[in-house]
Amino acid sequence: MAEVSELAGIVGEAHLLTGDDIGDDYTHDEALTATPQRPLAVVRPASTADVAAILAWATAHAVPVTARGSGTGLSGACIPRADGILVSFERMADILELDTDNHVAVVQPGVTLHQLDEATAAVGLVYPVFPGESSASLGGNVATNAGGMRAVRYGVTRHQVLGLTAVLATGEVLRTGGKFVKATSGYDLTQLIIGSEGTLALATEATLRLHPRLTHGATILVPFPTLEGVAAAVPRIVGSGLMPTILEYIDFITMSAITSAAGLELGVPEDVKAGALAYLVVVLENRSDDRVEEDTAELAELVTALGALDVYVLPPGAGAALIEAREKANGADDIIDLVVPRAAIPQYLSEVQAIAGASGSLVVGCGHAGDGNVHLSVFQPDAAVRSDVVGRVLSAGVALGGAVSGEHGIGTEKKKYLAAIEDPAKLDLMRRIKTAFDPAGVLNPGAIFD
Ligand SMILES: Cc1cc2nc3c(=O)[nH]c(=O)nc-3n(C[C@H](O)[C@H](O)[C@H](O)COP(=O)(O)OP(=O)(O)OC[C@H]3O[C@@H](n4cnc5c(N)ncnc54)[C@H](O)[C@@H]3O)c2cc1C
């Protein structure tokens, strides 16, 4: 029988936590429905070699391992098992390199988005993945394929990760990709590991693509009389060539909840508010104020022709506050982050309302409209009814050509829906891939599938 105390030989006594030394933070993430769990031990490695030794130990003794970045995940995926250990990356939080000629950053997994943003700003570059929580770690972003608001312009995490150092469950260390944007050299293992929620390998280093930082911008709020009007405007804005950095929709219920909770006054007159059933939030960025002004005028003309009630350029503070409040808005019983082709959003949202109405549930939302990622808050206190509603809402989206999760991942909280809705042949192949990477099944068992 293995003793977790043996792990002190790898990380040192001070970085092996057991019993009451394990703080509550290590027992949960931000998923609304998940149950916190205390592991046998928390291990805090300082290097790839430490991680390799920990994983070799875990495989040899068949002890489950869950990785943890910042614990901001929304699917329960970093919640440890009672019979397992939690590998926390807080000591591996260095930006190893900012290469301004190749436009890449090389980071350890515990680096946060906020930390990377400050460092890249200093050299006029940006890492453009911008999920709503800037305390999230790059390791967590890689493992969840984090998306966020700028995906409409820049894509998601998988479009920015050029290479990884990753440790397999056996303790073998892989280096994939590199400081280049193209490679056709066998299977793309970088992409396989991205989004695998800590079930295939643990990332100990990531090479990330950086972009020029556009320092001039405007946040524009556009009220529409109908949600369908908003949804129909989205493909037109994307097709206009204006290249919005952010293109979000917020329905009127969510908008009033956000603005009253955050005490935000956006300058929309009462008569316009009364007629607005949904809003678009558009951020335009460019290299100079003149260019931003030109783009804003063109956008205003376009949305007015598409039926917008008016167009408001928000003061910089209000724009940022609205976007931040939109990410934190809640109080719901569950959250769905399904993705559909963006042109299917109007049909999808009307199907969602029919499902919600039939079950006596309230399903409202906002989302990354530009990339079809709909975030729905489900208000239904009865767990059985809620589960049925969530299942139907997800199935309706998948039937329109969508996927169960656009960015939050499956974790433990959405796996029953994935099992019920996803193609069994694909799930079977995923299990076989999992076995090839992790023959003893120690990496995050119970996440994505059982
Ligand atoms: C207010 C709020 C807003 C949010 N908005 C968005 C959004 O707009 N878009 C979005 O995509 N997400 C969003 N999220 C979710 C969350 O921030 C992301 O899922 C983020 O990527 C999680 O990072 P983390 O460091 O907190 O990971 P954790 O929650 O710690 O872990 C997430 C997963 O990554 C695995 N993992 C962590 N580190 C490693 C590693 N080094 N190697 C392998 N596996 C690892 C864990 O085991 C787990 O499976 C939001 C969360 C909050 C609280």
What would you note in describing this structure?
With 450 residues, the chain is α+β, with helices and mostly antiparallel strands. The mean pLDDT is 94. Strand 17 (362-368) and strand 18 form a beta hairpin. Helix 7 (227-239) packs antiparallel against helix 12 (345-359), helix 8 packs across helix 11 (316-328) and helix 12 packs antiparallel against helix 13 (383-399). The longest helix has 17 residues, at 289-305. It has a seven-stranded antiparallel beta sheet with strand order 15-12-14-13-17-18-16, sandwiched between helices. It has a five-stranded antiparallel beta sheet with strand order 5-6-10-8-9. A four-stranded mixed beta sheet has the order 1-2-4-3, covered by helices on one side. The protein starts with 7 loop residues before the first helix and ends in a 13-residue tail after the last helix. It is 35% helix and 20% strand. The chain is built from 15 helices and 18 strands. It binds flavin-adenine dinucleotide. Residues 29-30, 66-74, 77-78, 89, 109, 131-133, 136-137, 139-141, 143-144, 146-148, 197-198, 202-203, 327-328, 407-408, 444, 447 line the site of flavin-adenine dinucleotide. Flavin-adenine dinucleotide (FAD) is lined by residues 29-30, 66-74, 77-78, 89, 109, 131-133, 136-137, 139-141, 143-144, 146-148, 197-198, 202-203, 327-328, 407-408, 444, 447.
